[in-house]
Specification:
62% of the residues lie in helices and 7% in strands. By secondary structure, the chain is mainly alpha-helical. The longest helix is centred in the N-terminal third of the chain and has 26 residues, at 42-67.
């Protein structure tokens, strides 16, 4: 749609990066505010947030590069062109989680209560991240025929196929994550054990992502076993993990602080 937000001489600000930064700052603010309410140092949460961001960017890029190894083997410098898109959210999750656990243990933060603090923030941050994808044209959908809400990308710098009616999969996921955010905020008031919000987020997102994948058109992300994409395979594993996690944590009867 509008991949370039501002271009003044040699200065170029990509809408994709701007939206990701906006989402991160909003997410971190909300997490810090909730931490204060629960008597946890907001400074610790802020530090943890930056570690998570760095790990998520590295992990999401690494998974995309591995899936498209042939291209990046021939064009190694393209690995660093993250402004062109190519960040797989699940790669970020898989890399950020162990980094976050390491940081929480180092600073004596309770893992599950801290994860619950971040759960709604992850969702709202992802809302803005997918809006960034929409503006950049990455993560685009399949052709949409005569779909009334289909979108046409025409900007020559966008990453989606141009002048073709496509499913707005970026908006599907952004809207879905907004709903997830509202559900988690509501669930927080009725939380019965630590880890409940985080597991609920994993559950909600895995379902959302599996559905959105049905309409994605960027097939270079790879398939686990056709027609199951890599992300759908991870979604199924994440769904089962969330179910098991909820059962185990509830049985342990970890009381919320």
């Amino acid at each position: 749609m509008h991949p370039i937000l501002i271009r003044i001489g040699p200065l170029t600000i990509h809408t994709y990066g701007f939206m990701i930064a906006t989402g991160f700052l909003i997410a971190l603010y909300l997490a810090g505010r909730q931490a204060k309410k629960e008597g946890i140092s907001s400074d610790r949460i802020m530090d943890l947030g930056f570690y998570i961001l760095l790990a998520a960017i590295i992990g999401s890029r690494l998974l995309f590069v591995l899936i498209n190894a042939d291209h990046y083997f021939q064009n190694p410098l393209d690995i660093f062109k993250i402004w062109e898109g190519g960040l797989v959210f699940y790669g970020g999750v898989l890399f950020a989680v162990p980094v976050a656990i390491w940081h929480m243990k180092k600073h004596n933060l309770d893992i599950w209560s801290t994860a619950d603090i971040f759960a709604p923030s992850i969702a709202i941050g992802h809302v803005f991240g997918r809006l960034g994808c929409f503006f950049a044209g990455c993560c685009f959908g399949k052709t949409a025929g005569t779909l009334p809400w289909g979108v046409i990308f025409s900007d020559p710098e966008c990453l989606a196929p141009r002048n073709v009616l496509l499913h707005p999969t970026q908006l599907y996921e952004s809207g879905g994550e907004l709903i997830n955010f509202l559900i988690l905020i509501s669930l927080r008031k009725h939380k019965s054990f630590n880890g409940q919000l985080f597991m609920a987020y994993l559950l909600l997102y895995s379902v959302l992502r599996f559905i959105v994948e049905l309409f994605r058109g960027d097939t270079e992300r790879g398939y686990l076993i056709y027609p199951i994409s890599v992300s759908q395979g991870i979604s199924m594993a994440l769904f089962l993990t969330a179910i098991i996690g909820m059962v185990v944590l509830k049985q342990r009867k970890i009381k919320p602080q």
